[in-house]
Design goal:
mainly beta, four-stranded antiparallel β-sheet
């Protein structure tokens, strides 16, 4: 089992920045990749960014060039640096971890970007 706890969400003006953090605990040695997804009400969950244990990253098209994912293996933590935030980035952000054979999810953290 893997437990994920997110933090860092909040309210920011358009053009501003936030950094989300996700701390993993439990069977962390089994984690292959971690990432961030977001889901607005009535919409499907959307890829934001992922990072493998080897450091390979992948980003959703809507955040490329603005968001950066990173991980600190010593702290079992993955970060999402979000710059140039837009009102359309407003939603709940979920931390995700893949530890074969399943995915784990955090409870989510709200990000609100005011115009």
């Amino acid at each position: 089992q893997v437990q994920l706890v997110e933090s860092g969400g909040g309210l920011v003006q358009a053009g501003g920045s936030l950094r989300l953090s996700c701390v993993a605990s439990g069977s962390i040695a089994n984690i292959n990749a971690m990432g961030w997804y977001r889901q607005a009400p009535g919409k499907q969950r959307e890829l934001v960014a992922t990072i493998t244990s080897g450091g390979t990253t992948n980003y959703g098209d809507s955040v490329k060039g603005r968001f950066t994912i990173s991980r600190d293996n010593a702290k079992n933590t993955v970060y999402l640096q979000m710059n140039s935030l837009k009102p359309e980035d407003t939603t709940v952000y979920y931390c995700n971890a893949f530890a074969r054979p399943r995915f784990y999810w955090g409870q989510g953290t709200q990000v609100t970007v005011s115009s």
